[in-house]
Design a protein that fits this description.
This protein is an all-alpha fold. 76% of the residues lie in helices and 1% in strands. The chain has a two-stranded antiparallel ribbon with strand order 1-2.
């Protein structure tokens, strides 16, 4: 009896802790959805900002965010997946590879403001890219690569060794086995890592603050060397730096950013589920 009582008390405590964490989050989400939905109109999504960002829309911030995510993905996915393939399939277990893995784990935990200062020093000043989409995307890519490498390597190592052995016994090369068998089987985990990295990049403010974000730029960028507005920094600006900003615009911008992040999550879940059903183990 005492054992079951302790179990019920433990379940009750866990439920209480879960409610303490979840209820405030649901409350904040509810406020954003209810208040922000009143600001969401076609003009709000497609017009340029005006009247010191107190009127018009947020179209440049949406376009700028997508351009940053596209540049981040193009720079981080090949390097992250390629590095993970080398570490998981080719590299020997030596002190050097263990040191590299430790460095990757540490890089994944570095605060984003440090990446922003690094991008400012390297891309904006040293390489003279200026405050631009290119500098911001490369900075976000450096921040994203450790996450992609870690999750992709784990996904590759989870594929059974028998798959590789069968390919080798049939006369296939190691790369043929990786390309034809290992990568397709590890694809759900790889996609998860990529989306996790891009989701972190999509919501960051500090890196783009130093490298790309413009305070007020009511036009679209024309080249990778132009600055741009972005949703996270724009939300920070209209919430803290613009006096008299209507709350509906703040909530509407937050709802657009939240919708972008959730849509990426849903897309990743659907793709991951599709490839997981096709997995042969």
């Amino acid at each position: 009896m005492d054992r079951f009582l302790v179990q019920r008390l433990g379940f009750a405590l866990l439920l209480f802790v879960a409610l303490v964490v979840v209820v405030p989050i649901l409350f904040v989400l509810g406020v954003i959805v209810v208040e922000g939905s009143m600001a969401i109109t076609w003009e709000f999504l497609s017009a340029m900002p005006s009247d010191g960002m107190k009127g018009g829309g947020i179209f440049p911030t949406i376009v700028g965010t997508f351009l940053l995510m596209l540049g981040t993905a193009m720079a981080s996915i090949p390097v992250g997946v390629g590095g993970a393939i080398y570490l998981a399939e080719y590299a020997r277990d030596t002190w050097l590879t263990r040191a590299i893995r430790l460095a990757i784990v540490n890089l994944a935990g570095i605060p984003s403001v440090v990446y922003g200062l690094f991008g400012l020093g390297l891309f904006v000043l040293f390489l003279q890219f200026g405050t631009s989409i290119l500098a911001g995307a490369l900075t976000l890519a450096i921040m994203t690569i450790p996450i992609i490498i870690s999750t992709t390597e784990e996904a590759l190592r989870a594929v059974p060794t028998e798959f590789r052995t069968i390919i080798a016994s049939l006369g296939g090369t190691r790369w043929q086995g990786i390309r034809g068998v290992v990568l397709p089987q590890a694809l759900p985990g790889i996609i998860t890592g990529i989306i996790l990295g891009l989701l972190r990049a999509a919501g960051e403010t500090a890196p783009i603050l130093f490298t790309v974000a413009a305070f007020y730029l009511p036009r679209l960028p024309h080249s990778p060397f132009d600055p741009t507005m972005a949703l996270p920094y724009h939300l920070y600006v209209i919430s803290t730096q613009v006096p008299g900003m209507p709350l509906r615009i703040q909530h509407g911008t937050a709802l657009v950013l939240l919708t972008l992040v959730l849509s990426m999550n849903v897309t990743a879940t659907v793709i991951r589920s599709y490839f997981r059903r096709r997995r042969q183990w």
